[in-house]
Every structure is written in C-alpha cells, then in structure tokens.
C-alpha cells in the first residue's frame, strides 16, 4: 500500500532522516513511534507530499505523494494555520465535504465534542478545539489512507476514547492508517505493527507483541497472601523479594506460575488479598532500543 525506501532528508546541514525504509500494508494501523525530534513528523510530511526530501522514494498505492494527495487518496490532519480565521466550525465541515464530494459528517463534530460550537469562528477556538476540528475534517471524507500525527495530544479523555473508536471503525471499513506518536499505550492498543524511529533511523519493525517479547525479563507476579508462603516449594516461580507482606515472584510462564501459586494458596488455606501482574511493556523495549546506540 505504502512503500518508503531509503528516505533521507536534511534541514540545512542537519540530516534528520537517514535512509528510512518501511512498508505499510493494506488495511493495517501502522504506528511510527519515536522520542521527540526522532523524525516522525518529517517522515509523515514527506509522505503527505507537504515536504520535499533529498533522496530515496515514497510510493503510495503506486503513486508519488503529490499525485496521491491530488487524487484525494490520503486524509491529513490540517495544520493550525490552514483554515480562514472567520470560518465557522459547521462551515468548515461543509466546505471541506463539498470540496471532497461527500456528505457533511456532522456526526463527527458531535464525536469530537464540537456540535455545540457549530457557529464558533475558527479564530476563537482553543488549540484543543482546533485539533479536534482538524481530526473531524481528516476523517470526514473517509480516505483510503489516513495520516495522523500525535492525534490525541491535547485531547481530553472523552475525545481520546472517541478518536480511538473512530480509528478502529475506519480500519474496519478498510482504511489504512499511519499514526505517529510517542504515546506507548495508544500505539500498543491501536497498532497492528510499529516502526520505532530513533535519531532518523528505523531501529525496529514488528507487531507490538513481537517487540514486547524481546524485553529481557520475566513477568512478575506480586501477591499478598493472608499468611506465609514457603517459596522454596514452588517450582514455576522464583521469589525476587518480600516486602510489606507482598511476595514478588518472577515467572517464565505466567499461567503456570499463577496456577501453581493459586494451588499452593488453596492447599494451605490461605487467602489472596491482592494480586498485581507486571508484564513487560512496549515502553520498556522502546526505552532499551532508544538507549542502544548511546
Ligand atoms: N522546518 C524545520 N527546519 C529545521 N529543522 C527542523 C524542521 N522541522 C523539524 N526539524 C528538526 O528535525 C528533527 C526531526 O523533527 P521532527 O519534527 O520530524 O521529529 P518528531 O519525531 O516528529 O518530534 P516530536 O515528537 O517532538 O514532534 C528535529 O531535530 C527538528 O528540530
């Protein structure tokens, strides 16, 4: 669907993209994950046809980014300066939809909490409100490919949940979505595959699960029983420490470890007062990868 090959981009002498290559498959949500300044926005802007690049190639459904944009294959969150200051929320939706030859999506204004401010002028909107309007417009013409750059930054919890739901529905309807973010939980929850970009280079591509499996530590099971546990008798878990009545066990296999602990508690008439499972996360692997070259 999208193929980026050996993409390089410099701002003056500062080379910010250093031969980036990745593919986005049809109907997947692909997350571009990276620390501040890694090159996510620059990569997205090159793909959107908004920014030139020095070398390499970008193919979007077989077209170059300019052509793909002209044919309205891609939906982009507009930049803040791109709407006239006196246009209202409702007018901007209508204008955008007439331009794209689709029916206005007033429901999206409702989804993003903008319904009540249909007559508000763009210049009077807060940054968060503008952001939500840009998202509603980006999604309104149901493009085949959608680029979202930090879509939930500055959104409140309700709008964030609504946006996640909207993204999932767009995928169900067949869209391909590229999402740049440094929000690990968001990427883990939404993305089918993730590319980790650090200092202008792609360091890792895989599903969130594949990447999490690379974390070099066991899952930790933290429990508070109603009495003492003879930890030496347990074969599937290793006691790491015992603090304030909490036993922290490492388990190579979570289910086996957990079932052994539960059986032990039952056999010894102990109650389980608290249970915390601490599994490796995408964030842990991301931090390892970001530090690898330092
Ligand atoms: N218009 C520009 N002119 C000069 N340098 C730029 C410009 N835009 C970005 N940069 C630089 O390019 C590098 C990559 O920036 P980019 O915005 O692509 O990163 P990012 O991963 O999106 O970061 P963030 O998560 O902070 O948004 C940074 O060092 C940034 O300072």
Automatic annotation (TrEMBL):
Domain ABC transporter: 2-224
Family matches, as InterPro entries: AAA+_ATPase, ABC_transporter-like_ATP-bd, ABC_transporter_ATP-binding, P-loop_NTPase
Keyword Metal-binding: no
One Pfam family it belongs to: ABC_tran
Keywords: ATP-binding, Nucleotide-binding, Transport
Gene3D superfamilies: P-loop containing nucleotide triphosphate hydrolases
This protein's record includes keyword Transferase: no
MF annotations from Gene Ontology: ATP binding; ATP hydrolysis activity
Family per similarity comment: Belongs to the ABC transporter superfamily.
Protein name: ABC-2 type transport system ATP-binding protein
């Amino acid at each position: 669907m999208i193929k980026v090959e050996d993409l390089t981009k410099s701002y003056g002498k500062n080379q910010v993209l250093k031969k980036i290559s990745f593919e986005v498959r049809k109907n997947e949500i692909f997350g571009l994950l990276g620390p501040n300044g890694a090159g996510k926005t620059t990569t997205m802007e090159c793909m959107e046809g908004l920014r030139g690049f020095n070398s390499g190639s970008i193919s979007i459904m077989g077209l170059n980014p300019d052509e793909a944009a002209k044919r309205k294959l891609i939906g982009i969150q507009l930049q803040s300066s791109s709407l006239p200051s006196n246009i209202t929320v409702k007018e901007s939706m209508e204008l955008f939809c007439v331009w794209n030859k689709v029916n206005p999506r007033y429901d999206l204004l409702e989804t993003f909490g903008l319904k009540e401010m249909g007559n508000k002028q763009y210049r009077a909107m807060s940054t968060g409100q503008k952001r939500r309007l840009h998202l509603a417009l980006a999604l309104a013409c149901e493009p085949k490919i959608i680029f979202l750059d930090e879509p939930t930054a500055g959104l409140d919890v309700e709008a964030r949940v609504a946006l996640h739901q909207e993204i999932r529905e767009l995928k169900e309807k067949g869209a391909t979505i590229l999402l740049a973010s440094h929000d690990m939980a968001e990427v883990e929850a939404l993305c089918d595959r993730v590319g980790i970009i650090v200092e202008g280079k792609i360091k890792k591509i895989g599903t969130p699960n594949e990447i999490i499996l690379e974390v070099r530590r066991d899952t930790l099971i933290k429990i508070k029983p109603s009495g003492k546990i003879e930890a030496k008798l347990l074969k599937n878990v290793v006691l790491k420490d015992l603090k304030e009545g909490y036993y922290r066990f490492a388990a190579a296999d979570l289910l086996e470890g957990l079932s052994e602990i539960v059986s032990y508690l039952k056999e010894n008439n102990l109650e389980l007062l608290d249970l915390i499972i601490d599994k490796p996360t995408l964030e842990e692997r991301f931090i390892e990868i970001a530090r690898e070259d330092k």
